[in-house]
C-alpha cells in the first residue's frame, strides 16, 4: 500500500511538475506575445505620428504657398488700382484742357460776334446818317 501511495504521489508530483512547466511555457509565450504587441503598438504610434507630421508639414507648405499667392494677388490689385487712378487722372486732365480750349473758343467767337455786331451797328448808323 505504501509503495502504491508513493507511486501515486510520484505520479502526482510528475503531473504537477508537467503542469508547472506548461504554465511557465504559457506565461513565457504570453509575455513574448505581449512584448510583440507592445512593439507593434509603438511602431504603429510612430508611423501615425510620422504621418501626422508629414500631413502637418504639407499643410504648412500649402498655407505658405497660398499666402504667397495672396500677397501676389494683393500686389497685382494694388498695381492695377494705381494704373487705373493714373489713367483716370490723365483723362481728367485731358478733359479739363479740352473744356478750357472749348471755353476759349467760345470766348473768341463771342468776341468776334460782338465785333461784328458793333461793325454792323456802325454800318447801320452810317447808313442812317447818309
Tell me about this structure.
The chain has 130 residues and is mostly helical. The longest helix has 128 residues. It is built from 1 helix and no strands. The chain is rod-shaped and about 185 Å long. It is 98% helix and 0% strand. The mean pLDDT is 96.
List keywords for this structure.
single chain, about 130 residues, mainly alpha, 1 helix, rod-shaped
Overall pLDDT metric: 96
> Oligomeric status of the shown chains?
single chain
DSSP helix fraction: over 70%
Beta-strand content estimate: under 5%
Structural class: mainly alpha
Spatial gap, N to C terminus: 187 Å
User: How many distinct helices?
Assistant: 1
| Rg | 55 Å
User: Spans with pLDDT under 50 lasting ≥5 residues?
Assistant: none
Describe the sheet with the most strands: none
User: Count the strands?
Assistant: 0
